[in-house]
Amino acid sequence: MGNTPSKSDGGYEPPKTTLFEKEPSGVTYRIPALVYLRRSGTFLAFAEKRTSSRDSDAKVLVMRRGLQRDDGSVQWLSSEELPMACLPNHRTMNPCPVFEKNTRTLFLFFVCILGHTSENRQIITGKNKTRLCYISSGDDGHTWNEAEDVTQSVIGETIHKWATFAVGPGHGVQLENGRLVIPAYAYYIPYRCFCFPVPHTVYPRALTVYSTDFGKTWHMGKMLHKRSCECEMAEIIDHEGRSHLYCNARNFGGYRREALSENSGVFFDKPRMARELVEQPRGCQGSVIGFPPPEFIPSEDAESKASDTSPLSPDTQTWLLFMHPTSKHCRRDMGVYLNRSPLHSRGWDRPWIIHSGPSGYSDLAYNRENDQFSCLMECGKESELEQIAFMSFTLKEVMQTNRKTC
After folding, report:
1. Has 361 been annotated as catalytic?
2. Where are the domains of the chain?
3. Which helix (H) or strand (E) element contains residue 175?
4. Which residue out of 12, 13, 55, 140 is catalytically annotated?
5. Is this structure's pTM higher than 0.85?
6. Catalytic residue at 378?
7. Which of 27, 112, 158, 257 is the most exposed place for a label (fewest CB within 10 A)?
């Protein structure tokens, strides 16, 4: 099962702009995160700067600022490090930004891990060496406050039941009710023997970190009941105006994991396998974003969907876009999937390949003013670790591509 990747005639791929590129010294940039700040027409692109490609060699977060021009192009400024996003003797990983529109505050969440302690070592020993932190900015990322370590106030004693954890990576979301949601996951320890986790019982589960007071205080939701790892979330508004929080998570069973929450992420009901979204054997992070559907759907597209098995149902005021490598075997051929009926279990279109070749982690952003999507993605010719590139495209391009391949 799973959707078959598709290309438009001629294999059109939107042009890319390289923002971060592997250096001859071995310095590697990984784990992209992207946020679009509507008020100032600004993109902020984040990544980890590592001394090598290894997770244990992560060093500091970096950022590039992109200014949206009137002609639709983006002017990118030089890269800058974020030394305030750190704790002493820790390395910083997994950037996860979210913008709070009422106070106009940008929060950048991340995790700090002690020294070079690997994720695998924490899982084997059951000794958690990770801290939950964020920095915030009131001027669209020009200046930042010092790092806040909120591990104790958010996770508390529960951390002793987690081998390790992380946020995102990728963007968070603000719901229509004002709640801020940061996607996260933790390696839960169900059983211990002589203080060590029982082998093969520790596996990741997705959850939320959320705030109901514009970011003053943060809380932790309940974990999914099924295996689920790195995740992103999006709000779906149905035709009656009710909110559903959608979770799309990395998985290890050949397909992605999906779940819905009816209480803004406090807990998720009935996680399911997304059998239209393939997953590589070891999994890979993916990005998802919600957006309002167009007022008018081209007649050709509506007719093609009417004959397809995926319903074109007006049951929501939200469509979803998902981005992830489309190969079943390895991280390559980055694809964009459209879902016009996100409350159905079989709503995903076949993907449009926007980068043929090695592809890895990604993040999506949406600009309402020009109905344009933008993304960051790890990609290259020989390896997905060669660069992190920026790309923009429209919903019309996505829909036309899918229509041509029906």
Report:
1. yes
2. 17-404
3. none
4. 55
5. yes
6. yes
7. 158
